[in-house]
Amino acid sequence: MNEALLDISDDQPSISIEKASPDDAEAIVEIRRQGWLSAYPNPDYGISYENVRKRIEGENGEHLAIAAERWHKGIKEDMASGRRANFVAKLNGKVVGYTAPHVINGQQRLGALYVLPEAQGKGVGRQLLQAAINWYGRDEDIFLRVVSYNQKAIDLYNKFGFRETGNNIEGIRIDDQEALPEIEMKLPKIQ
Q1: Burial of 56 (0-12, 13-18, 19+ CB in 10 A)
Q2: CATH number for the domain including 178?
């Protein structure tokens, strides 16, 4: 199987989308950490930087090692089973983004899609999203959840044809008091 699923090498930086390997686990955890810290604090919603940091890192960073081990194990298992895909984006050889499409309760779900802040605006998210859609095909609807005030992500999903479903979504808990407000979006299957 060809590991490089997509490679852009014209005037743009060299971006490749590849199946993740267990060795990418620590990079994925760091990308998720930075993604959360840059996108989710929002004083208008009572979501503080410190609360987001504690949720993603733990009080003293203890969640990061646990998450890296979970990703390492999960990628290894997913490679063997094919139940889920884990893709990483590499910009000039460095892992700068990832997505993890999978099926939950019979629904095709995008799962996570994060890009390092310094790699945003270079087409990385677009290529990761396309890789996830390609992995599923278009025979069934594809769903995702996104924080309601993450307009950059919503704009990207809209460009691909995702639309809000209007379904009530319980957001990710940040702490005992606050949750990230989320919306559900759907990319309809091709008839």
Answers
A1: buried
A2: 3.40.630.30
